[in-house]
Amino acid sequence: MEFLLLILASLIGMAAGIVTGLTPGIHINLVSVLVVASAPWLLQYFPLLALACFIISMSVSHTFLDTIPSIFLGAPDDATALGVLPGHRYLLKGWGMMAVKLSVVGSIAGAALSVLLFPLFVLLVRLTYPLFQLVIGWLLLAIVFFMVLRDRLRLWAALVFTLSGCLGLITLNIAGLKNPLFPLLSGLFGVATLTVSLNETNRIPPQQESPDIKLKLVVALKAVTAGQLSGFLTAMLPGVSSASAAVLSLQVFRDLGDHGYMILQGCINTVNFALSLAALLVLDKARNGSIIAIQQLLETVTLSHILVFLAIILFATGIATLLALWLGRAFARLLSHVNYRALVLGIIAFIVVLTPILSSWTGLLILATSTALGLLPATVKVARVHAMGCLLLPVILYFLV
Amino acid sequence: MLSDKALIILSLSLTLLGTLALYLILLTSELPVSDLTVVDKAHEAETVRVTGTVEAVRHGKNSTVTILTLSEQVQRTAVAFDTLNFTPGQKVEIEGQVQMYEGEPELLVRKATTLNPTAGKAGTQVAQRWNSSS
């Protein structure tokens, strides 16, 4: 009976993952918080472990599906921010579905390899974390310097990082503000990108539903390896997003091309989530909102819990693959029939309406400010990843000051 | 349609204006004062401001950790990774994060203030490092 409840909870979690993955601004953290808050009522119908499985399957299916709006609408969250430009290139050639397929290939490979290599990652985290811990603040600072210096427009890159860092510091310290990350990240990466796409995209060409993909095995292998490395970095270093880790990995694994890039993006998000379980098991530290929610639900996470979660990851991977392909096609078809501008404006309006509900009126001011700041990278043509300073600077200051 | 230069100026101006306004909100924002019952599992990871009377004070071996036992309807532990000079009997106001430690709720102190300074050393004491969640 408990087994069936775990499966049922995972299936419902996947349905929630469809909503969070496809709706810009609705983050899995929000649903995870709701699950924790409703736990006393939910426990009448489900065991505690089933609630955790709900969160796991929702998070996995989210990582498969969140690339769809980022490709078709240009509306990424922090994890997919890096992939917007290549994804948009595919869209403008009528190959949006090809980008979805490549991302799904990355996600499948990422999930399967993460589960397979999980014992190795546990060992690596256990052995290397004490070293990382000693230098974590300086390491993060070095990463920031590296990312700024590699940008063609270093001054602008430094300015975007500093301004977003200050905004993050202020926002995260406003007393009593609920869900500060929602307006902050929605503005920097969501509304700002949607506004740019409103300005630049007048017409989306007809989309091919089943484009052929010519993919070199070497490129795919390099992209998946880069994804595993990036996922490991995000699991070890707090505040380092998937996008920042990808920038670092791309220095090691060069010449991935657009195909490899989309695979890397799909891979990295799934690996990031799977390996945060290794950080939880070894370090008892949460690296994302879903894991915090699981920690709050279970209090003590044991190896048996982790084994169940890894099985749920595989289960969710299978179904999320089918969902991503089906929903990707539906999106491609939808774009041919709806007014693109109206759709984007509708999403912006949705985020604006949701902000005061989740984060009070101060949230609207944060959303407006972060949107204005989020427009800068697109306008001056520096990498959007510098805006991750909103999380990186507070984390660096925590470790160094 | 706005030119790139105009858009850059507009973005920067709005960013600076908004950041300044948020900074002012940050300076004036205050958490509502609650009683010690708010330090429980339901409020885990939330930042709260509570008042209570110091019942006992313990310092770590190297004095970098202070453990306060507070009471006011219920008894709770508050931990500061700093030296706090409070004495039993003082009424204090503490701002910090609720966390669970070995199954019991406790408060990780960010800022602690004496409400009746005559009973001991006056003023606000700030814990240097208060967040161990990373």
Can you describe this structure?
The complex is a heterodimer of chains A (401) and B (134). By secondary structure, chain A is mainly alpha-helical. Chain A has helices spanning 2-22, 28-37, 39-42, 48-65, 67-72, 84-92, 96-116, 118-150, 154-173, 181-200, 217-236, 242-252, 257-283, 289-298, 303-337, 340-380, 389-400. Chain A is globular. Chain B folds into two domains: 1-30; 33-126, Nucleic acid-binding proteins (OB fold (Dihydrolipoamide Acetyltransferase, E2P), Beta Barrel). Chain B contains one helix and seven strands. Chain B has a five-stranded mixed beta barrel. The A-B interface holds A 163, 166-167, 170-171, 173-177, 199, 238-239, 285-286, 292, 296, 299, 362, 365-366, 368-370, 372-373, 375-376, 379-380, 395, 398-399 and B 1, 4, 7-8, 10-19, 21-23, 25-26, 29-32, 44-45, 47, 49, 95, 100, 103, 131, 133-134.
Compact overview of the structure:
Chain A is built from 17 helices and no strands. Chain A is mostly helical. Chain A is globular and about 55 Å long.
